[in-house]
Amino acid sequence: MEAVDPPLRGLPDSQCYGQPSGIKARPPRSADQCWRSHRVSWRLWGVFAAAVSCPGRDVSGGATRRQCRWLARGSIPVSDIHQTASSWTWIAGEIVPTAAASIGVLDRGFLYGESVFETLRTVERKALFLSDHLMRLRKSASLLGMTCDFDDGWMEQLIDQLLARIPAGEDAVVRITMTRGNRIGGRLEAEGCRSRWIVTATAMEPEKSRPPLHLVISKFRKAPPDVLDPAIKSGNFLSSILAREDAIGRGADDGILLSPEGILTETSCANLFWVRDGEVFTCSRELVLEGITRGCAIRLLESSGIEVIEGLFPELEIRSAQEAFLTSSVTGIVAVASIDGRDLTSDLESSITETLRTQYQQQILTASRGGVR
Q1: Which CATH number characterizes residue 160's domain?
Q2: Which of 53, 230, 308, 342 is deepest in the core (most CB within 10 A)?
């Protein structure tokens, strides 16, 4: 693996957990070292081996000495590009294949979900709405009492260098994660902990029209603000995972979470909108994360003369919707096909959703060409 040149000097040493803050490549390992590392990590970690094992392993969990030799000499065949080199991670001051990246077992993000993160799309090697995401990341960290004092220009350069390793012609998803750092002395309190940063870029197919999604009302409820402030984009995703798995088990794509009082909020990882009689409705920001794409959608709708009503709406309100859609940074604007089996696709081509999706596609194209960063 080649070193990143020139090195970046952004975060203090303490922010990258005691490692030099310049970005560099991990020193090459011999094939035998790589093979032994894989065998040990697989035995110790089982299903978590992907996080710490050799990036030359295949999807069944086995690794070949041939693949480890490729890794050791820094040469990976083109045929394996998606398996190994299409996801790269910066951690502790160096860039490594994501499958080779790892954190310690004492990290509080791993132990307690004590972390904040941002996920964003890239198009044509440009991170979309990066400044908005970094502003929200700082807000999340501040609400948890975590210091988030990196330089935006440093983060932009780091992301650009990760994207340079993504195969040409492919877009990517970038995730920026900040954990509290290691637990100290078995204590629950976080005093003295040093934050850990992890940034990952993973290749994805270029943007295509996504098929409408089937939703159900989830049996799981969204945590109220007095339990967890929705403005915190936290790494603790258990309620979302439970809602998604429950929906899939019921033959749907995702679940709509209600508040404990029965108010419509969002799905497992997207903001929810619905349309009735030409008006668009969505949950108030007091109960949901203020999504970057959510805000963009509201601005586009209002600029087209369509009223967007934010409020606290009971489940019954969505039963009479003529259409619905979801917004998120990764998937953009996605139409809803049905809710609890009720079809919402009868007039999709001429819908507000389809018009908005077209406008949003133009917006991200403008952003990728330097209009928004």
Answers
A1: 3.30.470.10
A2: 53
CA gap 344, 354 in Å, rounded = 13
Residue with tokens 């999709």: 348
pLDDT for 71 equals 37
Q: What is the pLDDT of residues 290-329, one digit of tens each?
A: 999 999 999 999 999 999 999 999 999 999 999 999 999 9
**Domain shared by 220 and 328, yes or no:** yes
CA 227 to chain centre: 23
Say how far apart CA 82 and CA 84 lie, in whole Å: 6
> Domain range for residue 278?
213-368
* Integer Cα distance of 368 and 352 in angstroms: 24
Q: Which two tokens stand for residue 34?
A: 């790589």
Q: Which of 12, 61, 13, 23 shows the shortest CA–CA distance to 165? A: 23
Residues facing residue 234 across a β-bridge: 116
Distance CA 163, CA 170 (A): 10
Q: Please give the angle made by the CA atoms of 225, 230 and 232, to the nearest 5 degrees.
A: 120
334 and 219 in a single domain? The answer is yes
CA 305, distance to chain mean position in Å, is 32
* DSSP sequence for 207-251: P-PPPPEEEEEEEEEPPPTTTS-TT--BS--HHHHHHHHHHHHTT
Helices and strands per DSSP (H, E), number in the chain:
8, 16
Specify the 3-state DSSP secondary structure of 206.
Answer: coil
Q: What is the pLDDT of residues 124-147, one digit of tens each?
A: 899 999 999 999 999 999 999 998
| Local structure of 101: helix, strand or coil | coil
Show which of 182, 204, 226 is a domain's final residue.
Answer: 204
> Where does a domain end: 176, 204, 232?
204
Q: Rounded to whole angstroms, how far apart are CA atoms 34 and 63?
A: 10
Residue 40 lies in a domain: no
Question: Is 228 found in the same domain as 190?
Answer: no
Do 125 and 191 fall into the same domain? Answer: yes
Distance of CA 74 to the CA centre of its chain: 28
Q: Are residues 184 and 221 in the same domain?
A: no
